[in-house]
Design a protein that fits this description.
heterodimer; A: alpha+beta; Ribosomal Protein S5, domain 2; 6-stranded mixed sheet; 4-stranded antiparallel sheet; B: alpha+beta; 5-stranded mixed sheet; 5-stranded antiparallel sheet; 12 strands; globular
Chain lengths: ~260, ~240
Amino acid sequence: MSSSVVPSIKKDFIYKLISEGKRIDGRAFDEYRSIKIETGLIRKAEGSAKVKIGNTQVLVGIKMDVGEPYPDSPDMGVLTTSAELIPLASPDFEAGPPGKEAIELARVVDRGIRESEIIQLDKLCIEPGEKVWIMFIDIHVLDQDGNLFDASLLASLAALYTSTVPAERFELGENFKLPLSKDPPISCTSVKLNNAIVIDPVLDEEEIADARLTVATDKKGDIRAMQKGLSGSFTIEEVKKIIKASIINGKKLREVLNKSIRG
Amino acid sequence: MGMKKPEDVILFKNNKRIDGRKPDELRPIKIEAGVLYRADGSAYVEWGGNKILAAVYGPREALPKHIQDPRKAIVNARYNMAAFSVEDRKRPGPDRRSIEISKVISEALERVILTEQFPRASIDVNIEVLDADAGTRCAGLTAAGVALADAGIPMRDIPVACAAGKVEGKVILDLCKEEDNYGDADMPVAIAPLTDEILLLQMDGHLTYEEFEKALDLAIKGCHIVSELQKKALLKKYERVLEVE
């Protein structure tokens, strides 16, 4: 996600800190920032959540509509995920149609949700072949300070788990809670810089990182999705280390998520 | 405006409006300054059911170069609605309505900003409507005013906006959704509150001249109330900073 350049003096500074075992914001290499999740903020949305990871803020809203199913899955609801990197969130984001970064972000979140099959799309069928629920997950990045992947997936999940299907609005009976299974995948992103691995990078770290790896894990600690990014590479040992750290931190993130969607 | 009123909707009865307000009463308003980390200045406004964020970037070099003005900064406001901010999902990106609103807000802000101090620069004001509930342009401009002040942009005044209108023949302040949909007139007004100069004025519907005078007077009174809330929000942020120091 580096469209701007961290001045080389700052890069030298971050590298020097890393070689001393420190990070720019004082965290340990395997320490996640503090997380805050708020749900039900947007009245017009079927479900919504705002996630803060450090200074990064992402707002996700769920909207639902009634429409036609895809011909190859006539009895399944339709899921669409979009992300917008709006110029409000960063001096480097520009207005206009979603670029590569926004599309990668939306697709990684979409895959995490779709492939884990937490949304029971078969229960979102109204009339097979004719009418199904169309579901939109819209990711609105509000403040970009690194690690949009984890923040966006977490916000999408919190929004989904607090969503109500607006059946009354479409005169299709009573509103009902969105049917979801209980075990969502939680992603955890790490980057490699100056040959060190740090978890949950801030923007300054992300911009000078050589490689990035996002690992989604489930409740049992099994791996459910991965995405490697940037032009650098990882050693096999590094990948193993990142996965282990993602399992441990995934547990913590899951607790925060569960707390926010209860009640 | 423009929508046919269902039989059972009563917009005005016993000097009370559909949501229980008096004719000259504003909806609840909450303003917070300095809510974003990356932006040079920012503000969050809750106004009735509206939830709006504004962020200011700049003054910074205007790009591409051909848009630069060698005499002054350009003010570039961008009003945008989140896909989930309205009843039926809005397709992301600008449409004709948001482009027009962006233009009139940009022009209103340009009047109060000391643009001549920053030749060839742009001052970018991003207004995001997160939850929409009638009167988003007024709430958006009000948020932009606070965000500009928070960014330290030199201004003649802090711009502020409020709408007045008419339902069932009665002139009212700050229309809610039903009043906007089924009412007789809607008139958003933005002013520079020190001088009462008018920075933005739009109207649709039907007003007699006398009603217009009354509506304008009411809108300006509303602007002054909101202006006090803007100043309070800015003061609160700096009180916070002082406490930390």
